[in-house]
Specification:
alpha/beta
Length: 341
């Protein structure tokens, strides 16, 4: 973690897989092309009428409407010009990452360089404890989709396979709205129905296996209604080796709920405190309370020993250590029948 002289509560984390070998109606952020409103900066949109007023007709207004229909409490929208390039998108993503209310963000572009710009902005924000998830979309054949996800290979990026005929950004907007609306970070996005988009996509089992294992999120027509088949991140390898640790979107969402919540709790209670044994005991108690609350709410399965110690090289620093196991979503139920004739 980079040294920062500003007093505060800072955090870092690492995740290891327990399987070897392999936040209701929150705000969403959006960057999209628009002929109107580029001079406005980031605008918090709470209705489709407001989006039309601010940005006029076009993809940005349409995407805001879709995200709101699918459950986002609001969309913090940043318009880029109709001739915007990756650098323009990068500037918009950087501005969106400054918005405190955003937990997930999306865009209208299907270009790989724009997706990379979103990822870079999100990773830069993570360095300062501002955690975001990015949702992008791409259309094409199975191999091309897997290749696009592989190019990102990031636990904070979701790449959804979109129907080529649908308006650019609509699938990303719909999925983002559902994610923003799901207040329980451990609740799988799989099976969530989507509104505001058309979908005729159906996947064979072989395609599902290839795409999901390749880091591509799938939306499918299920009984006439678009629904999320599997929501996964693009992180599929670590150091060139297959790694399923980060496959489920819920893993990242749980981390983004637990760590900031503990950090904020400590910031509120210990903004002016002494680094004494009594204070460190109180800090440990508060961390345990927060972790136990997440166990009760089934956001995490369990947590390990919580340690609180003064730093060896700086008496003004208190080091807090803890571990936890994320709760896993239920993707499959296997029935084993024993039949007597």
């Amino acid at each position: 973690m980079a040294l920062n002289e500003r007093p505060g509560v800072y955090s870092s984390y690492e995740v290891t897989s327990s399987v070897r070998g392999s936040t209701t109606g929150g705000d969403a952020g959006c960057a999209a092309k628009s002929a109107k409103g580029t001079e406005l900066g980031c605008v918090r949109i709470t209705s489709s009428a407001q989006a039309l007023e601010q940005f006029g007709e076009g993809s940005l207004s349409d995407m805001c409407a879709v995200a709101l229909r699918c459950g986002a409490g609001a969309v913090v929208a940043r318009a880029v010009g109709e001739d915007a390039d990756a650098a323009d998108y990068a500037a918009a993503f950087a501005e969106l990452c400054e918005a405190e209310s955003i937990g997930v963000m999306f865009c209208d572009s299907r270009e790989a360089n724009v997706h990379s710009a979103m990822m870079e902005a999100i990773l830069a924000a993570s360095e300062t404890c501002r955690y975001r998830i990015g949702v992008a979309e791409s259309a094409g054949e199975t191999a091309a989709l897997v290749s696009a996800a592989k190019a990102l290979n990031c636990e904070r990026m979701v790449l959804v396979a979109a129907e080529a005929a649908e308006a650019k950004g609509s699938y990303a907007a719909a999925l983002t709205g559902v994610i923003a609306a799901t207040s329980d970070p451990a609740l799988p996005i799989n099976g969530a129905t989507l509104t505001g988009i058309g979908c005729s996509l159906r996947y064979s089992d072989d395609d599902v296996n290839t795409l999901v294992r390749g880091g591509v999120t799938l939306i499918e027509n299920q009984a006439g209604t678009p629904a999320v088949l599997r929501a996964v991140t693009t992180r599929t390898t670590t150091g060139g080796v297959e790694d399923t640790t980060w496959r489920e979107v819920t893993t990242v969402r749980i981390i983004d709920e637990v760590i900031p919540a503990i950090r904020d709790s400590l910031r509120r209670r210990f903004s002016r405190a002494k680094n004494t044994a009594q204070t460190r005991g109180a800090i440990r108690t508060q961390v345990v309370i927060e972790l136990q609350d997440r166990v009760t709410r089934e956001i995490i399965d369990s947590y390990g020993d919580v340690t609180v110690e003064p730093a060896a090289d700086d008496p003004t620093v208190c080091e807090v250590g803890f571990g936890f196991t994320v709760a896993h979503g239920l993707n499959h139920i296997y029935l084993a029948a024993r039949i007597t004739v």
